[in-house]
Amino acid sequence: MDRTRLPALLARESAEAERRNPRSRAAYARADHLFGRVPMTWMNKTAGAFPRYLAGARGARVTDIDGHAYIDFCLGDTGAMAGHSPAPVTEAVHHRYAELGGATAMLPTEDAEWVGAELTRRFGLARWSFSLTATDANRWAIRLARAVTGRPKILVNSYCYHGSVDESLIVTGPDGTGTARPGNVGAPCDVTLTSRVAEFNDLAGLERELAYGDVAAVLMEPALTNIGIVLPEPGYLTGVRELTRRYGALLINDETHTFSAGPGGCTAAWDLEPDLLTIGKAIGGGIPAGAYGLSAELADRLLGRTDLDLVDMGGVGGTLAGNALSVAATRATLEHVLTDEAFARMATLAERFEAGVRAGIEAHRLPWSVSRLGARTEYRFTSPAPRTGTESAAASDPELEDFLHLYLANRGILLTPFHNMALMCPDTTERDVDTHTEVFAAALAELAA
After folding, report:
1. What is residue 320's three-state secondary structure?
2. What sign results for the dihedral spanned by CA atoms 436, 279, 169, 369?
3. Cα–Cα distance, 156 to 406 (Å, whole number)
């Protein structure tokens, strides 16, 4: 790669994005009453001077207000893994809200037990409760873990992602000890008071931290995702389970992003045995929904504690948690859209995507790598692929990333804005994947010219 070409190429693609999207640029400029000019500040994490504004979306396609259609491999950063507005979810939401009436009434519906049973079939956890986000599910799981163990600290992996959970915003510093993750906003206290940290794929580091005896639970993704895909090495996850049991800590699997591994996430695909499992985003088909599952043993231990107010003070997902609308959407998504058969097709497409990216990398002998987790694929600007979160963070190349994102978007392809993740949905086609392969190859050719 001729690195000297990159600034000019990035400037060209930035100018092209501004030329192509005058309505989005104008909408962003006049958004004076929004904090950061967007409804949620994460939306500023995009290549270019402004975000594209949504007009509509269906299946694997997004249209912006300037009239451009895109093949969508971002899919709402996993929130739309079922595709945009899938028909069964649309019908279920209309039936619940317009025909039956009522979205939230502080009353259960029969859909909830169906969803709980299906989550048990997929993930193996015996008891389930609902939230509106995976962040909320993680918060409730942490509280329950502290309650049942009597221990104060939560252990996470460096550069993990568990939403805005305060306990998760810790990384390993240069000396190997825990320190606050750079940029953390408004931390309530020194994160080392609440948390411990170990590198992913580092069993020795994990055991060192567990040996203090104050860890209530290890909260982890079975594969890191939001810092780029970091896959577990052989024996690592088995070792994590053995160590947590040896030192009396619970194991919480956050499957919110790793749900891409299959209909039961990594937990089913790799035969894992967590004590709790959290999930959100994709299960509602675009309607806010989250859930946390407990093993039968843990549920019985908690329900047997007469000193815990589990009705009101603990494990509560918020007033809207488990509402009729989100539960109806979750049932439709799991029953009709993100089925076992759909996951098989999505994984096959992701294999095709991975092969196309690898061919482009190898054609130019670039020191890059590509990793896949079921229906999710990601390329990184380093080889071999990172084995820890800290290694993955160090491989970041914002200038190169922005060029590729703008180059693809200007030619009708969207990736997840803050890294090079591509996700398949049930409506993604082979032609969609091949289009990315062709455009990606053209971008590499320009970099190599």
Report:
1. coil
2. negative
3. 33
Q: Classify 44 in phi/psi space as left (phi over 0), alpha (psi -120 to 50) or beta.
A: alpha
Please state, in angstroms and rounded to a whole number, the distance separating the CA atoms of residues 271 and 290.
22
- pTM flag (> 0.90): yes
The pair phi, psi for residue 55, each rounded to 5°, is -100, -45
Residue labelled with tokens 């061919």 = 359
Instruction: With CA atoms as reference, report the closest residue to 427 among 62, 94, 63.
Output: 62
User: Per-residue DSSP letters for 198-266?
Assistant: E-TT-HHHHHHHHTTS-EEEEEE-SSB-BTB-BPPPTTHHHHHHHHHHHTT-EEEEE-TTGGGGSTTHH
| Residue 28: alpha-carbon gap to chain centroid | 26
Rg value, the chain, Cα? 22
pLDDT digits (tens, 9 = 90+) for 27-60: 999 999 999 999 999 999 999 999 999 999 999 9
Is-contact 236 230, C-beta < 8 A? no
